[in-house]
Structures are given as structure tokens and as C-alpha cells.
Amino acid sequence: MKVKIGSYPYRLVCNIHARYMQKKYGYTDWPAEQSYEEHVLEAVEDAVQRAYNVFNWLWFDRLKQKIKVRIDKWDTWSMDHTLAHVILPMLVQLKATNHGYPANLTEKKWDGIMDEMIWAFEQKCRYDGWEGDYYEYRELGLEEDKGDSLFGLKLVWEDKEGFAAHQLRMTNGFKLFGKYFENLWD
After folding, report:
1. pTM score, two decimals?
2. What is the pLDDT of residues 100-115, one digit of tens each?
């Protein structure tokens, strides 16, 4: 798999008046009464923005985000694992840079949901596999009966309840990912 996604197209925006207000007053939400100087800056900004809008119409509005995706045959053999390696770092970055949360949730609740999704994808990406935390095999000796073995290995310990609980938590994290898929933006 090879994925290359370019930045979003942008437009030219004139911020002369806003930058002036930020520099002079430390804010961009200015009072209703403006000085002559501010009215002039606003008029200049409007004129410059009209020129920018022509250029935006001629050039920037025709640009599209460049996206190239190449999928190899082996990428779909275990597609859940393949996608998990892409989704996990994106979720981690989104959590680190997030500036909001869905309207029907609190910030604390959204943070918990993000943690659950990240945890589920971390488990899916584990190189050694999470399943090994819940059972143990040992190799059979030459003299031992191989009738009840799997590839010469004998199960010596397993935790079925722990395994089921772990799988249930992962499944919940993936369900949350699906449920809040359209909220995964910053």
C-alpha cells in the first residue's frame, strides 16, 4: 500500500484590519465605534480582498486536493490489521491536537472515547498479538503423547474470561470508531 495525500487547497484571504486590531488592542473583536484610521483600513482590506477573490476564482478555486492511493494484493489479506496501522497514529495525533468534541458529549467523555478507540487499535497493532496474554503453550518432549497437541505444543494455561473481556473491550473501541467516524476531525 502506498498513500499520498496532499494538503487541502486554500484561498487568499486579506487580514489587514484584523491584524491591525490584534496588534493595537490585542483582540480581533473590536467595539462598534471605529476610528477614521480603522475605517480606512477596513476599506483597504475590502479592496484587496476583491482583488484576491478574482485570483482565487482564476486559480485556487480550481485546485483539488491531490490524493494517490495504491493498494497491493497483500494489503487486503488482513485488511483490519493493515488499516489499524494507518488509523492508530491518526487517532493519537487527533487526540493530541484536538480543539473540540461532538456537540452531544462533554470534553471528558470525548477524551474517554478517544482513549478507548486508541487502545483498541493499539491492541490490533501489537506485533506479538494480544491473544498470547491469555494462554501459554509448551513444547512436548520426544517421549510425550502427541495426540492432544497442536503442532507439537501443549496448552498449559489459559484465561478464557480474560480473553473474552479483552476481545469485548476491543470490539467496543471499534464500534465507537464507527459510531463517531464523522466526528474524527480537528
Report:
1. 0.69
2. 899 999 999 999 999 9
